[in-house]
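User: Sequence recovery, please. Input:
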């Protein structure tokens, strides 16, 4: 192979990497902190306790966040390729912090929609630029895989802490202010914004200032690859996110409307979900598993995800539901990082752009899943429609997974040794 295709790569030092981990953690926390309290917020702001309206607004509010990511993640990815990863991350964290606090001061349902959309717009800059920066500085596939695991774990940790912090802050603020005004939302919003600002300051001080991906030490010139490989990976990302979106909304609504759980108990369910993802990701991309072998986990994970989704609405008590949640979380925890890793490996110089499309595909899936999860939760034409249709989509995508595993190892770009 031409030596020009394998220039020496300087690994990213630990301090800059730590700033990326904090950035991923803060964005994930900012999304998940509102999950257990969203039905209660909608109930207050919409002045209704009607189950159908609550489920519709809950699904749409979660969907509008992901819709913004779908629309803007590819743009942010191109910005990071052209102007540098650091700038994209800084703009994303700064805008996210400002919008999160500002929208919480607008005590109305439209204000909540406004805040969720613009929070998604700015948060969509962080993940593609962070993954691309790590890829730019990857001296080997093993290094890339292990450090991607750290980014995944940081995001999962944010999802783990967010629901617990959101439920606690919301309950404390309601007790302190007797449920008046927007104070109940302001407390978790302030915590999220402070963390995002801290992450932004660490990025500003510690990250390298390369103007573009092509100027980074890790930029590589690689031969053409089959576009079908990335398209299939994007399909996996879309389907997994759709299933997770429907699952998240269904879990919150089923916990409140069917099982009678309070915000704290619902928060514990989301915390369990994040903890399982955390552990699974740590194992899948640990030194015990070769990065190239992860492609063979796609089909089993899809089977487990479909089975878990079918099982969730059949549970009628807390313990069986926690088991079903664990299965869904484990499967999603396997699929999402595998898709990101292989897209990065096959993307070459355009990592920011391709990872932006991956973020967009995942957000579109979660947008549709969240919206359908809320809109279909109360209908009776199809039993447990939100879970059943999501599981069906996973089953459909399963048909392409064995072929995808073979395509990944056959792709010219994947065959290169970084």
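Assistant: Recovered sequence (418 residues):
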């Amino acid at each position: 192979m031409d030596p020009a295709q394998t220039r020496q790569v300087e690994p990213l030092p630990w301090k800059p990497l730590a700033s990326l981990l904090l950035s991923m953690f803060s964005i994930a926390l900012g999304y998940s902190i509102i999950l257990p309290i969203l039905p209660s917020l909608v109930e207050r702001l919409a002045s209704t306790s009607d189950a159908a309206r609550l489920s519709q607004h809950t699904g749409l509010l979660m969907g509008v966040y992901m819709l913004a990511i779908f629309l803007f993640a590819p743009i942010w990815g191109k910005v990071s390729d052209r102007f540098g990863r650091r700038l994209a991350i800084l703009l994303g964290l700064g805008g996210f912090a400002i919008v999160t606090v500002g929208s919480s001061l607008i005590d109305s349902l439209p204000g909540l929609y406004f805040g969720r959309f613009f929070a998604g717009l700015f948060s969509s800059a962080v993940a593609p630029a962070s993954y691309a920066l790590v890829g730019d500085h990857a001296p080997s596939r093993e290094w890339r895989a292990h450090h991607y695991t750290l980014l995944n774990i940081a995001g999962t940790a944010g999802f783990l802490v967010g629901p617990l912090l959101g439920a606690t802050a919301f309950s404390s603020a309601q007790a302190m202010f007797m449920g008046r005004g927007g104070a109940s939302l302001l407390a978790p919003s302030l915590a999220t914004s402070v963390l995002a600002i801290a992450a932004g300051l660490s990025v500003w001080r510690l990250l390298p200032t390369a103007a573009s991906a092509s100027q980074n030490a890790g930029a590589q010139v690689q031969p053409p690859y089959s576009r079908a490989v990335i398209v299939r990976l994007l399909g996996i990302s879309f389907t997994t996110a759709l299933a997770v979106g429907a699952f998240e909304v269904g879990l919150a609504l089923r916990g409140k409307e069917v099982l009678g759980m309070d915000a704290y108990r619902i928060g514990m369910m989301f915390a369990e979900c994040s903890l399982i993802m955390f552990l699974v990701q740590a194992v899948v991309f640990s030194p015990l598993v070769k990065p190239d072998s992860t492609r063979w986990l796609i089909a089993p994970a899809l089977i487990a995800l479909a089975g878990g989704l079918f099982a969730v609405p059949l549970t009628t008590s807390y313990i069986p539901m926690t088991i079903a949640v664990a299965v869904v979380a484990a499967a999603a925890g396997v699929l999402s990082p595998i898709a990101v890793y292989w897209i990065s490996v096959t993307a070459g110089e355009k990592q920011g752009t391709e990872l932006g499309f991956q973020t967009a595909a995942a957000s579109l899936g979660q947008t549709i899943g969240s919206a359908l999860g809320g809109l279909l939760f109360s209908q009776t034409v199809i039993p447990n429609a939100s879970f059943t249709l999501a599981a069906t989509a996973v089953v459909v995508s399963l048909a392409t997974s064995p072929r995808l595993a073979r395509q990944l190892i056959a792709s010219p770009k994947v065959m290169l040794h970084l």
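Residues 229 and 407 are 7 Å apart (CA to CA).
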